[in-house]
Each structure stands twice: as C-alpha cells, then as structure tokens.
Amino acid sequence: MRAVVAGFGVSGFAAADSLLFLGAGVTALDETSTPEKAEKAELLETLGATVRLEQGATDTLPDDVDVLVTSPGWKPSAPLLARASARGIPIWGEIELAWRLRDPEHAAPRLAVTGTNGKTTTVQMLDSILRAAGPAARPSAMSAARSSRRSWTPIPTTSSRSSSPASSCTTRSR
After folding, report:
1. CA-CA distance, 149 to 120, in Å (whole number)?
2. In angstroms, rounded to a whole number, what is the distance separating the alpha carbons of residues 132 and 159?
3. Residues with Cβ < 8 Å from 122, sequence gap 6 or more?
4. Which end of the chain is more exposed for a tag (fewer CB within 10 A), N or C?
C-alpha cells in the first residue's frame, strides 16, 4: 500500500509512523516546518518515508497513491483532498485509519471522545471508570491500532472526516 498523509502534526506523524510500522510506503506532506516537525521527519525518513515540509508541499498529489490520510484541520474542499477525490483515491481521517488498522483477530472495543475541549480529561475519567469496573483499559491515540489486548481503549480524537461507520463517536468492534 502507498499512502499520502496530509498534515504532519501530532496525528499526521502518528498516522505516518503506524503505516510505516505496518510496511506501507508513506509520503507525508505539510505546508510548514518547525524544528519539532523536522526532527520527526528525519526519524521517519530514516525508516523509509518521504516527508515534504515546505510551502507548496501539498500542491501536488503523488501519482502512485492508494489512500490519502488527512489530519485534523483539513477542510474537505482543500485542493489536495479534491485532487485525491477526483482521482478516486480513498480519503481517510485518523479515526478511520485506526479502525482499518485494528487486528480483527484480537479486536478491542473502543470509546472515541471528540470535541473542542476536555478530551484528555474525559479519557482519563473513562480510564478510571473502566479500571474500577474490571476490564483493563489503556488510553492512547494511534497506539490503539497496534494493540492486541482484549480491552476497552479510550481514544481522544480531534476529527471525524469520513462518513464511514468507523468514524462514529463510539465504536465497538465485533
């Protein structure tokens, strides 16, 4: 699989890292560069990713792309997403990516928390409630995609771009 990750903030880096971990070819694109982004880019480039952090990085969608993963903050009308859509390339948000990367043999129910404020506090509260109730719970972001434990996994989310069932606010696996 060849993936383009649009945006290289916290969730864009996590998406690119997870895809690389699973063997995908990854190109990450972002219009800005900071020292933190440059350091993370160097790490992922060492692992085989292509990372472009500069003005105009998102002007062109690479030719050989199977999926575009968008980070929070990208408008569906953004030119890069519009080009992917016009070419019939699937566009996934971070939630859909996490859902698709789950291990179907060891699926774990998930609670996704979204909103403007209070996600971390709410996830910590859910973690406490679930631990008190008995099942093991592990708060995480993209690490949910790598988890093989049968447990509840509260996930703080920042967007839900897709209309797929995987991007609903509360998702339980089979």
Report:
1. 22
2. 29
3. 113, 115, 156
4. C
CA distances from 40 to 24, 61, 73, 93, 172 (A): 18, 21, 20, 20, 32
* CA separation for the pair 50, 32 (Å, rounded): 15
Show the domains of the chain with their CATH numbers.
2-89 (3.40.50.720), 103-171 (no CATH)
The pTM for the full model equals: 0.70
Maximum alpha-carbon separation in the chain: 50
Q: Enter the DSSP assignment of 71.
A: P
Q: Give Cα separations from 34 to 9, 39, 69, 84 (angstroms).
A: 10, 9, 21, 26
Specify the 3-state DSSP secondary structure of 167: helix
